[in-house]
Amino acid sequence: AQKITQTQPGMFVQEKEAVTLDCTYDTSDQSYGLFWYKQPSSGEMIFLIYQGSYDEQNATEGRYSLNFQKARKSANLVISASQLGDSAMYFCAMREWTGNQFYFGTGTSLTVIP
Amino acid sequence: NAGVMQNPRHLVRRRGQEARLRCSPMKGHSHVYWYRQLPEEGLKFMVYLQKENIIDESGMPKERFSAEFPKEGPSILRIQQVVRGDSAAYFCASSPISTGNTIYFGEGSWLTVV
Fold first, then answer.
1. By CB distance 3.0 to 4.6 Å, which of A35, B22, B88, B92 could disulfide with A93?
2. Nearest-angstrom CA–CA distance, A105 and B23
3. 3-state secondary structure of B8
4. Could you report the per-residue pLDDT of B36-50, keeping only the tens digit for each?
């Protein structure tokens, strides 16, 4: 089974609007971390936001917030007030603290329309 | 504070040649991960190393691929007798401790096998 599922291959959003990128995960571990990374066309992987499985509050980092719904095993990324520079691939990832790997989804390509 | 440094950024090899990819982790980081990203796909874990130790190589192909992280110098991912299917982006990431909240990626090395 896929550890991380991103069901939206591509998304479009109008500049200054908010957008939600979906991510569901699969684990039987109680302790894990959820991450979002941004990969612009230049190729580098940029860390955006982290949510621990025991964190009671949703993580926020500037315009990024993580909508963490533990019972549904979802960790959606919300980008508020989209900017043209937000156009990129976005990857959801998970790390189970019992293991060494970060598991990545297949990514969502976000295009911000002026 | 320099980030994770990878070189070369781009590498072209003929089938049958060897490819060596280097990764210098962030200062103070002693844990290195290698990931491979095939075109249109997410990142796949390859190997996790600490200085002079391979901790987890469950994602490494059994043949032609090897990795090391010596006491001094960068981590090296070595691919012998490259084939066209090895063409991919290879990302290195580092973290300060094994249970770090995140890993920080380098800019990637793009290998093209012709």
1. A35
2. 24
3. coil
4. 998 777 889 999 999
